[in-house]
Structure formats: structure tokens, C-alpha cells
Specification:
alpha+beta, 6-stranded antiparallel β-sheet, 19% helix, globular
């Protein structure tokens, strides 16, 4: 019996891998370990696979006019219109729109399914963080039916923070 206990009874796999802190242009968030990160001047994309179909990203834009939380209702209406136009261009509809809190800010978030002319369809969740003269677009993308691989979208939304 003692020889059976020694065979595979207790494995030493070490501590679980930690999430990776990803920094971009005035923001940061966490991503699952092992995902690939790429950067441009204003965006960070973290991909699960080399095909890039499963990813999370954050892209910074400069607003023409400063935003303040008192403008949220008006900004939400404008964002709803922009999201509807984007969905129409992609020949789809918005499955869900809601207000969530991300990094202490009220954020409009939209869920839709995109069906490109070629390739497989994918689900997207897009959120817009507005702060001062900054807009950060958060994006989660995964193949249809794959719910938040490795918890990457939940990580993006729960760990996102603005930085200077």
C-alpha cells in the first residue's frame, strides 16, 4: 500500500500562475497568465490564441471636450447611438446594453454577436470608460458560445484602473 501512495498521490505543481498586469496609455488591467500581449501607441491587446479570435483589449482616445460624471446621462445616450451604428455596420444588433462600474467610473457596456463575411462568428463585449479628456474603449472577444475564456473579460472589467 505504501508504494501506491507514493505513485501520484501528491503532486508538486507549485503555486498557480498569477495574472499578468498589463499597462497601456494611462490605464492598466490584469490578464490571464500565458496570453500574448501586443501594444501600439494607444492600445494594448492581449490574445489567448495566435489567431486572435479570443482577446481582450483597451484603447485610449482623446475627447474633444472634457467629460464629467454629471454628463453621464447625456454621454450614455450618445454612446448608445454610436453602438447602434457600429452594430448596424457589422450587420448585427446589440444583444444587451447596460451601465456597469469599472475602475470606480460608470461605464456603458454593450454585448453583440459579430458574423463576419468570412470566418467564424464571435461574441463581443464593448465598454466605454470616460474620464476628463480620455475615453478608453474596453473590448472582449471570443468565439460564439465560448463564455469568457480564462475569465479574461471579467478580469479586464474588475481590475481596470486609470493611471497618470
Amino acid at each position: 500500500l505504501s508504494s501506491l501512495a507514493a505513485c501520484g498521490g501528491g503532486s508538486e505543481t507549485g503555486p498557480p500562475a498569477r495574472n499578468v498586469v498589463v499597462k497601456g496609455a494611462g490605464f492598466q488591467f490584469e490578464a490571464p497568465p500565458g496570453w500574448r500581449t501586443s501594444r501600439t501607441g494607444s492600445s494594448v491587446v492581449v490574445r489567448q490564441d495566435s489567431a486572435g479570435t479570443t482577446l481582450v483589449s483597451a484603447t485610449a482616445f482623446v475627447l474633444l471636450k472634457p467629460y464629467s460624471p454629471a454628463l453621464f446621462a447625456r454621454a450614455a445616450q450618445e454612446l448608445d447611438g454610436v453602438a447602434a451604428k457600429l452594430a448596424a455596420q457589422a450587420r448585427t444588433t446589440i444583444a444587451e446594453s447596460k451601465t456597469v462600474t469599472v475602475g470606480g467610473e460608470r461605464v456603458r457596456s454593450y454585448r453583440l454577436t459579430v458574423k463576419p463575411a468570412s470566418g467564424a462568428a464571435f461574441d463581443e463585449q464593448i465598454g466605454f470608460v470616460l474620464h476628463g479628456k480620455r475615453e478608453i474603449q474596453l473590448l472582449c472577444r471570443a468565439p460564439v458560445g465560448v463564455t469568457d475564456p480564462d475569465g479574461a473579460c471579467a478580469l479586464l472589467y474588475s481590475t481596470f484602473r486609470l493611471s497618470s
